[in-house]
Amino acid sequence: MQTVTTKSLCERAASLLGEGTVAAVLGWKRGEFDYDLTPAVFTAAEELTEGFIYNDFSGANLSKYLLKKTREIDGKILVFLKPCDTYSFNQLLSEHRFDREKVYAIGIPCSGMADIQKIRKIVGEGITAIEACENSLLVHTLYDDEPISVSCAEVLTERCLNCKSKKHVAYDELIGDEGEVLTSNRFDEVEKIEALSADERFAFWQNELSRCIRCNACRDACPACTCEKCVFDNPNSGVQSKAPGGEFEEKLFHIIRAYHVAGRCTDCGECSRVCPQNIPLHLLNRKFIKDMNETYGEYQAGEYDNQRAPLVNFSLDDPEPSDVVKGGFDRA
Amino acid sequence: MTDMNETLIPILGVITDVRIDTPDIKTFRVVTPDGKKPFDHRPGQCAMLSVPGIGEAMFSITSSPTNTEYMEFSIKKCGCVTEWLHAAEEGQMITVRGPYGKPFPVDDVFAGHDMLFIAGGVGLAPLRSVINYCRHYRDRYGRIDIVYGSRSKDDLLDYREIIEEWQNDENVHVHLTIDREQEGWDGHVGFVPNYVKELGFDTNKMAVLCGPPIMIKFTLDGLSELGFDKTQVYTTLELRMKCGVGKCGRCNVGAKYVCKDGPVFRCDELDELPDEY
Amino acid sequence: MLKCTLSNIDKLFEIVSASMPLYLPTEDKNGAVFKKWQPGTVWSNASNTVKGPKDLFFPQSEDLMAFKTEGKKIEVIDTRTETEDFAVFGVRACDVKSLEILDRVFLTEPRDSYYASRREHGVIISLACNRPTENCFCGTFGIDAAEPMGDVSAWLTDDALYLHANTERGQAFTKLIADLTEACDDSAVSAQKEKNRKVMKRLPLADLEANAFGGSKTEQFFHSPQWEKLSESCLGCGTCTFVCPTCQCYDIRDFKTNNGVVRYRCWDSCMYSEFTKMAHGNNRNSQKERFRQRFMHKLVYFPENNDGIFSCVGCGRCLAKCPISMNIVKVMKALEVDTDD
User: Fold this and answer.
1) How close B101 gets to chain C, by Cα (Å)?
2) What pLDDT does residue A68 have?
3) Which ipTM score applies to this complex?
């Protein structure tokens, strides 16, 4: 369960709305069930009371919505940011994608988000209600007389299992306790894939990407994908595509996208979270992050709001491209 | 066995003549490889033309159904397919399928009436088919008025045909206008909607409108000022299409598909539709 | 009514597969998907598949024809072949209904021969739902998940599969598996139906009604102020469209190959920004307009053109898959507020 309550966030948001500091609140809105929250804009205290919620399913990273909403809404927007969301927030600022003056950011702690699919795997279908307890979730279903208790740790989303930071890197105000940058084991999975032979690796990605239905949800949710018109949507680009036209084309889309966000991807994990086909897309991005770390030194996109990513920067210590290509570069 | 008749598979057409009408409009004459008209159609109907590798697009058939030898398409250069076609020469093959859409009600609603045709720019293309149809069956219709405007003299489509044929027909009155004064033009200057009001037609006729949306909107206003009822006015819509037969799902306005329920609509029918065209 | 004991079910699949390809739900990394049965394939009785059987009749991408071009010459090559007979087992009531909705689009004149050929050669063996999910609301659209249609209707109890042929094609199918089945009365199936219907009454969305919607309601809903709010966080992705068993919009595109041009079609989505874009403009410029189109089509435009039948079967896939959890149930509930006023 989360350490700050919906009520406390609601009250703070209502008071900032009431005193006119902000004109709108960007948060999560409750749905039909306890887990189907929708990002939403709230402009009145009653709307907040009725719909705002922060719980174990507030996974959506709201920072990308600031691009559109800061242009649409007059006045400041209050946005609630979990620690990992603040990295995306900073990265977008680094790229001058929205006006910082138009945003009032409240950092909120996150104890990790739950994955409804993992819960379904344990309790089965027919989930009617989910109650949050301290370290577990009580899941009510259509088919069980008693609620089933699942531990939060067991159903954490993949990205939260490898949480990189509980620390907020940007905010105007903090509610709840501040955390620390964590040493995560997020590259373990990448290393496993690196250890495969080229053929095995090819087969691994072919199998994963074969499920792609080109819905573009990964791109549309990605806070690093902020092109006004994506090359893959542009009829004049010559590469517009909306269906898996062949095995090669699928890889093309995902690999081009991974290249395009390299150095700018904060590893927020939205791509994999939203993928309706459960493709571990974040692993492509992580491989790039890992390579960049090894080649140019540790770098965390979004750590600051005015960084230059290694791939768009130059220093005399940079390794020669030939060393990198050979793959035998040794930093020491 | 499944009935394998398939509308999406086109037949071949050969461009036998390319006429430059205006700086950005050309008229293409198309026949089948054995020299026949690709298929029969009614005034106002459309056809899908394609250039393999470039794409397929819907065009109104400019020639009259009474022309039994070939089809003509007046095409404005504005996208991939049209750009390619504008570069094409005589003898070039393309593909053709159709006819698609609901035609103008020339044989029932229009029959016996005076006709008023109002067109702007390339909007004359779909009207040329019905105008020439009415000229062909001249005794079925009363007085014919044609108001046609364009940006400039050079942008008047089918200008030669209008000057040499239409204007000389009995009881056909052509009223041309261009948007701005131009050297060598001693005709009317002004926008189509205003010109229609200036001309001040009696309302005992059927009107057919075609042109850019903004022209249609203001001309409709003008016509109702003159006392026309929307049930007397017909127009055509144009939206993006892929299949041409109401299945690909993109050319709908409300519950109507422009490709099969249109492109011809009576203006009061348009009022029933959401404003999304 | 025919009965086949569950212990014989793999044998049943094997016999069917010997005479025609058989597609059935089987567990993949991402949940149940329709796959071709092969020795060793394990049938999944999951509440429903991630995607419906739509792909088997209207694949996401399919070649329509080919062209050869040389100088100014073009040759059109008809690449179609008659589909071979195939069977689809385990289609839920909602998905059976979704095919009837697709039929209304593709089998209306002019018939789509690509779809028609698959439809004419596919035998559908449906399966009643014993454990619907919380996202299910097929009842809203008059579908009875305890009484699925198709060429053969099937019910599952703890120990047996019961089958009933509804069509000639269905009878040919049951004949094929005659050695594994025995005739029986309806009592076991009736008891199972009772059980299933009891569950359906308890579904969280059991009370959802579609009465407020239907043809001729364009005026009423098109200008609803709710669209703004409902669509405000829509990503404009195609997830809802692509997991929907009734969404059928498509694009036709050309692909240049080494020795000619292939014209293919692929699923398209009204949620995409360039769906209606023309060289000189776009009549649905905002995501709000595109979002509205999708739901107006399902709830108003489609029924207007199809005898009041909605283009939604309540399968719940969009509820499960939308990245921002916006879906037709939320839309219906929000719009109904308007009608209450």
Assistant:
1) 12
2) 94
3) 0.93
